[in-house]
Design goal:
globular, alpha/beta, 677 residues, Ubiquitin-like (UB roll), six-stranded mixed sheet
Length: 677
């Protein structure tokens, strides 16, 4: 072994893999694939690292990543190798991609594993909810027969198209989107003067699509741009039917898991906002291709697009620098609805398709919250309704037809599996349900991809292809709640080390304790730090809700709706047991599904809904948690399970909450020591 090799072994580089968030220090010269495997990062490879299969592709991050404390650049990894060059020439590598089996670590680095390289691909749980929507879109199709040109009539082809619309459909005052002018004559002659036109608008009408002959396919895309996932629903504009849905991970994750990390990336890396804008637009174009292909139609048949997202996603999508959203007073460039063409956003759709971006409410309460309000209609309710869209940034709305207040709360990515030692995104192999025996303290669980519980016959065979890879968001809520209800964790979130005398599932972990869920090729355990991460996230959420309740001077909530992919899959009983949400009759606590996506569909399919939400968002009162003096007090009280001060009488009717144990310190031996006064 050479001196340089020995020197490299002595030096360690910090490597962070996204979107999993897993990190570790590795000797210089370690192949990226080896580093990923040692951390349990989900990355595919079937050729044994010989650069044949090409499945282990990764995207190296470049720039300053403040959250990770890393400066990652081209010198952090080895140069493009001959093997990669050969693979690129034969099979092609996307710009910026590397083969992880051939790329070596030379310094601190942030490395993204794209979905295409993951074995257990993300399950994007944002399906279209069944919903009655009054169908009245802004874009409609008209089949017309146009008079042929005549030497005695000097009118142009376009004028005769306008005349046909007026005479045959009573549609007048029409313009045409400029790029279509160059196609008009060819389409007219190909259709032998019979064409179909797509017209958008009410007052100011505009032709946005033309086809030769009869054409009856008009579609729209409703897209929810989340910070973690992007979901798209392709709808028939005439019937409202969702003909195809697709979702993918937001590729911006490699620039930062949470919103402020992405804003920080822009602050520290000039041009970083342009990078993220390009990535999210590419992702939306890809979803357009996926959904139209699934439905068997052309992207040219997409006449309208509605888009929703939180303020940072909103600004980056529109190509607006989000830096002002990173600090007080959190000023939006615009909170008004935005109306542009697909080509203005570089979307690979019908260039003249009309894009409508729903209005934002305030600096941290975005168009996605406006869409949730449009979907759930608290502004029509007599009851006091709480809407909670749980993501990396929780957005909260409370009120009824008399008054609506809203805020955002920085919950972070813990609810989605990040910052949890064995956490992961929802994917086959991830634990999503769990129960703990109150006597033996042994768990049983269910994983994504199988309906069987771990103690049922056939479970091992059912999960053979996926294995047990980690715990997703809904599973994390259940395991922490079950640990609390079983007495493994006390009201202050402390894992009871004395229980190590009762079960070997309680193990020492440095100066704290962990609870082992699954021991095998990959041991899954909940650590004290994991519990603390959930406490911090849920305390931020509950504190935001308490501020809104105080603003409305109420102590009880009648109805709770949990929106978003996370809210759709958690058991509301466990959410309340942990104190994510206030006490409420469990019969009135429901998942709203992908309410933001539903709101986007309503705005797509009903033109009056756009005016409604534009009016309502101007009436919502925004509460800024960052400047509220009582937020910290509420936060501290909400750290306890389920809460330090608030009682949960309605929840107590459904489940038995454990009695508070005396405060104590623990030693790794498991013995409790009374605190000295």
């Amino acid at each position: 072994m050479s001196e340089s090799d020995l020197s490299n072994q002595d030096q360690k580089a910090l490597v962070v893999f996204t979107p999993s968030g897993k990190r570790g220090r590795f000797s210089l010269g370690t192949p990226v694939l080896d580093a990923a495997r040692s951390l349990g990062v989900d990355i595919d490879s079937v050729c044994g690292g010989r650069a044949i299969c090409g499945r282990c592709q990764v995207i190296p991050g470049t720039g300053e990543f403040a959250k990770h404390g890393i400066s990652s650049d081209k010198d952090s990894l080895s140069a493009f190798s001959e093997v990669e060059t050969r693979y690129d020439s034969k099979r092609g590598l996307k710009s910026g991609y590397r083969l992880s089996c051939q790329t070596k670590i030379l310094g601190d680095a942030v490395i993204d594993v794209p979905e295409s390289s993951q074995v257990h691909k993300q399950v994007v749980r944002k399906r279209a909810e069944a919903r009655d929507i009054d169908i009245n879109p802004l874009s409609k199709l008209y089949y017309i027969e146009v008079a042929e040109p005549d030497m005695h009539d000097p009118s142009s082809d376009l004028e005769r198209v306008f005349l046909a619309l007026q005479q045959q459909w009573d549609v007048d005052d029409v313009a045409i989107d400029f790029p279509l002018l160059s196609k008009l004559q060819k389409v007219l002659r190909a259709g032998k003067w019979k064409i179909t036109v797509g017209v958008h608008g009410d007052g100011d009408k505009k032709i946005i699509a033309i086809w030769p002959g009869f054409h009856d396919a008009a579609f729209g895309l409703a897209i929810d741009v989340g910070s973690t996932t992007i979901a798209a629903h392709l709808c028939n504009l005439a019937t409202g039917q969702v003909v195809a849905s697709a979702g993918l991970m937001n590729p911006q994750i490699r620039f930062g898991e949470d919103l402020m990390s992405r804003v920080s990336y822009v602050m520290m890396n000039p041009g970083g906002d342009v990078e993220m804008t390009t990535e999210v637009r590419r992702a939306i174009s890809e979803l357009g291709r996926q959904t139209t292909k699934e439905a068997g139609v052309s992207v040219d048949d997409v006449l309208e697009v509605t888009l929703v997202g939180n303020p940072v996603m909103h600004h980056l999508l529109l190509g607006i620098d989000p830096i002002e959203l990173g600090g007080a007073p959190f000023a939006l460039t615009t909170g008004l609805p935005v109306k542009v063409r697909a080509s203005d956003l570089d979307l690979d759709l019908n260039a003249s398709a009309q894009v409508y971006v729903l209005p934002c409410i305030a600096g941290h309460v975005g168009a996605d919250t406006a869409a949730v309000i449009l979907s759930e209609e608290p502004y029509k309710s007599d009851d006091m309704m709480l809407l909670v869209d749980v993501g990396t940034n929780a957005e909260i709305v409370l009120g009824n037809k008399d008054r609506l207040v809203a805020c955002s709360s920085p919950t972070g990515p813990a609810f989605e599996g990040a910052q949890i030692s064995c956490g992961q995104r929802a994917a086959p192999g991830a634990i999503e349900r769990i129960r703990i025996d109150r006597e033996t303290l042994d768990p049983v669980y269910r994983v994504i991809g199988s309906e069987l519980w771990s103690n049922e016959e056939g479970f091992a065979e059912a999960i053979k292809s996926t294995g047990i890879t980690g715990i997703c968001g809904s599973g994390i809520i259940e395991i922490i709640a079950e640990m609390f209800l079983a007495g493994i964790v006390d009201v202050d979130g402390l894992i009871d080390g004395s229980l190590s005398e009762k079960t070997d599932r309680i193990i020492t972990n440095d100066r704290t304790f962990s609870y082992v869920i699954h021991a095998g090729e990959q041991t899954l355990a909940i650590t004290q730090n994991d519990v603390r991460a959930i406490q911090l996230a849920k305390a931020a959420l509950y504190a935001g809700i308490k501020l809104l309740m105080e603003k409305l001077d109420i102590t009880q909530i009648d109805t709770i709706r949990l929106a978003g992919a996370f809210g759709s899959h958690i058991d509301v009983k466990y959410a309340m047991a942990l104190g994510l949400i206030p006490d409420c009759d469990l019969a009135h606590v429901h998942s709203a599904g992908n309410a933001a996506g539903t709101g986007a569909r309503i705005a797509l399919l009903n033109k009056e809904a756009r005016g409604t939400i534009e009016r309502v968002v101007r009436q919502v009162e925004k509460i800024e948690t960052a400047v509220e003096p009582k937020f910290q007090e509420h936060f501290v009280n909400a750290m306890a399970f389920p809460h330090k001060v608030d009682e949960f009488p309605k929840l107590s009717l459904e489940i038995k909450l454990p009695e508070a144990k005396p405060a104590a310190e623990q030693s790794p031996s498991g013995r409790r020591r009374r605190r000295r006064k």
